[in-house]
Amino acid sequence: MKYLFLLLLISSVAIHASENWVLKEGCPPSFELRDGQCFLVNRYQFYDSLQNRGVGGTQTGLPEFRDGFSPQQIDLGRYLFFDPLLSKDGSLSCASCHQPELGFADGRPRSIGMDGQVVKRAAPSLWNVGFLKKLFWDARASTLEEQAVGPLFAADEMANTPQKLMADLVANPLYPELFKQAYPGQATPLSLENVLHALAAFQTSLVSLNSPYDRYALGHHAALSDEEIAGMNVYRSFVARCSECHTPPLFTNQQIAVIGTPEPEGVPLDIGAEETFHAAKLKGGFKVPTLRNIVKTAPYMHSGRFDSLRDAVEFYTKGRGHAVPAGVEMQIHWHIWEPKLTDQEIDDIVTFLGALTDESLIPETPDKVPSGLSPLTGFQPTLNQQQAEHTDE
Ligand code: HEC
Ligand code: HEC
């Protein structure tokens, strides 16, 4: 049994290696190829930046975007993103916790990493990360490259080491050649630096800017229903103040705000950005998350405390600081107060948030990845586990 399985494994790797894998030569849709690099094209580029318009208006521009990757780098990043080879034992890929069909989140209150360990926070969506200046709920990373080092090498996430990761990639029958295609002319195309760079390249292709809201904002009045427009008006009113922080068109102003959301029962207070910036006034502060594709990414908040979008919205009407544990000094943001929204207004906001959905540029999940492992988009048993089960027999 054992030998049969090994044989199967070896032959599948051999078939794999004999194939000629060529990375894509074209940019993802919405990107334009110029001098071998992909640049984002979108209609917001015709509008002024935020500074000139104030918050909440429809005709505001987007913040600066990280583009300029080659098509091959983006495609290589796609394989890496879906390949469980990047984890210690082949059991987890980036996509295990950032599943395309769940808004690139994982549907869990808090993610589950290596050997079933519960990670401290919920997995955020990755849509539009190419616009973000700070990453992680507590803003502790400034680039996508810096960010990826976190999950790759954290013991409770993918639990790998740089040495093992590089050894696995070098020994793989396909990756050395794919890195050459993506980084031609470099002395060492297969480097940790390029792994991080390619992952960043792929993630910047996750652009969502064509929701019904966008079509409305760009001039097609009929793109939103009356209820959605009613919700939008509450959303950006001075009473609700949502757009002060979740500012269109990105639906985040990228700042840190202390709003005092509750932790799940029995979970100690997460001090958030206080730790990043060593500043007590940021205790319980988190990066304002985007609300794009928000209907896909329940449960909500850093802790996944709210199961439904309605519960997350209702939090804001329950009174400033209502969920802050007794005895904790928290400096709640001035835009968090007691708007006393009616049930109807809460429903309307929720309806409006549904109009922020656009997954038209969702990338293809590869049928197979260079390791030959199943490109994980869930927690199916991995090849390694299956193998272990078989050898036990
Ligand atoms: C075990 C689950 C898990 C895996 C595997 C995982 N992530 Fe995450 N990811 C998370 C969680 C949880 C957070 C939020 C952590 C925090 O803020 O402290 C996160 C945050 C992020 C962010 C920040 C997004 C933002 O808006 O700030 C990016 C980008 C990201 N992950 C990319 C990746 C990449 C690339 C990989 C693979 C190398 C990966 N993740 C693997 C769970 C995971
Ligand atoms: C002062 C800034 C601020 C204002 C005003 C604000 N929010 Fe938030 N919002 C945040 C922050 C910060 C978080 C993350 C908090 C956490 O995880 O504990 C958040 C989280 C959310 C989430 C969950 C997102 C996710 O991915 O889990 C939703 C939904 C949301 N806000 C909707 C709203 C609505 C609707 C309003 C208006 C009624 C509003 N917010 C007003 C700062 C703000």
From TrEMBL:
<dbReference type="InterPro" id="IPR051395">
    <property type="entry name" value="Cytochrome_c_Peroxidase/MauG"/>
</dbReference>
<keyword id="KW-0408">Iron</keyword>
<protein>
    <submittedName>
        <fullName>C-type cytochrome</fullName>
    </submittedName>
</protein>
<keyword id="KW-0479">Metal-binding</keyword>
<dbReference type="InterPro" id="IPR036909">
    <property type="entry name" value="Cyt_c-like_dom_sf"/>
</dbReference>
<dbReference type="Pfam" id="PF03150">
    <property type="entry name" value="CCP_MauG"/>
</dbReference>
<feature type="region of interest" description="Disordered">
    <location>
        <begin position="363"/>
        <end position="393"/>
    </location>
</feature>
<feature type="domain" description="Cytochrome c">
    <location>
        <begin position="226"/>
        <end position="357"/>
    </location>
</feature>
<keyword id="KW-0560">Oxidoreductase</keyword>
<dbReference type="InterPro" id="IPR004852">
    <property type="entry name" value="Di-haem_cyt_c_peroxidsae"/>
</dbReference>
<keyword id="KW-0732">Signal</keyword>
<feature type="signal peptide">
    <location>
        <begin position="1"/>
        <end position="17"/>
    </location>
</feature>
<keyword id="KW-0349">Heme</keyword>
<dbReference type="InterPro" id="IPR009056">
    <property type="entry name" value="Cyt_c-like_dom"/>
</dbReference>
<feature type="compositionally biased region" description="Polar residues">
    <location>
        <begin position="377"/>
        <end position="393"/>
    </location>
</feature>
<feature type="domain" description="Cytochrome c">
    <location>
        <begin position="72"/>
        <end position="203"/>
    </location>
</feature>
